Amino acid sequence: MKLLLAVVVLVALMGQGKSLQCYYCTNNPISVGIPQDPNCGNTDYSTEDPSFIEEWSGFDGCLTRVYSDGKVERDGAFGNFDDGECDVGMFESTECFCHGDLCNIDLCEGCDA
Q: Which domain of life is it from (predicted)?
């Protein structure tokens, strides 16, 4: 019985330690609270600058949000979504989701939303 309890506690603690790295930036000068990077709207976005990489604990994946005016936000995401799934977001935006560290590099080119 003690062994079973120890295994259950260990599994629960392992799940809490799960984290994910996502690019975290925007090229929208009026966005508040998101790090500003003029290159955030580039296709195949990539940076080694830790100011634009966030470690998210408990998030399910990453997202890229592309607004109709061309502004872009990259962030962590929660929810039950498939890798590559697209959605129509708020304020005339398209959101695309992905699983895996630093996967939010594209501009939702594969979305029809």
A: Eukaryota
Q: What is the pLDDT of residues 63-90, one digit of tens each?
A: 999 999 999 999 999 999 999 999 998 8
Whether 23 maps to a domain, the answer reads yes
Q: Per residue, what are the HEC states of 27-40?
A: CCCCCCCCCECCCC
Structurally, how many domains does the chain consist of? 1
| Other residues' Cβ atoms within 10 Å of the Cβ of residue 25 | 27
Is 7 a member of any domain? Answer: no
Chain centroid, CA 31 distance in Å: 17
In a domain, 33, yes or no: yes
SS3 1: coil
Assess whether pLDDT exceeds 70 at residue 4: no
Q: Is the whole model's pTM more than 0.85, yes or no?
A: no
9 phi-psi bin (left φ>0, alpha ψ -120 to 50, beta other)? alpha
The answer to whether residue 104 sits within a structural domain is no
What is the domain range of residue 89? 19-98
In this prediction, residue 113 has a pLDDT band, given cuts at 50, 70 and 90, of low
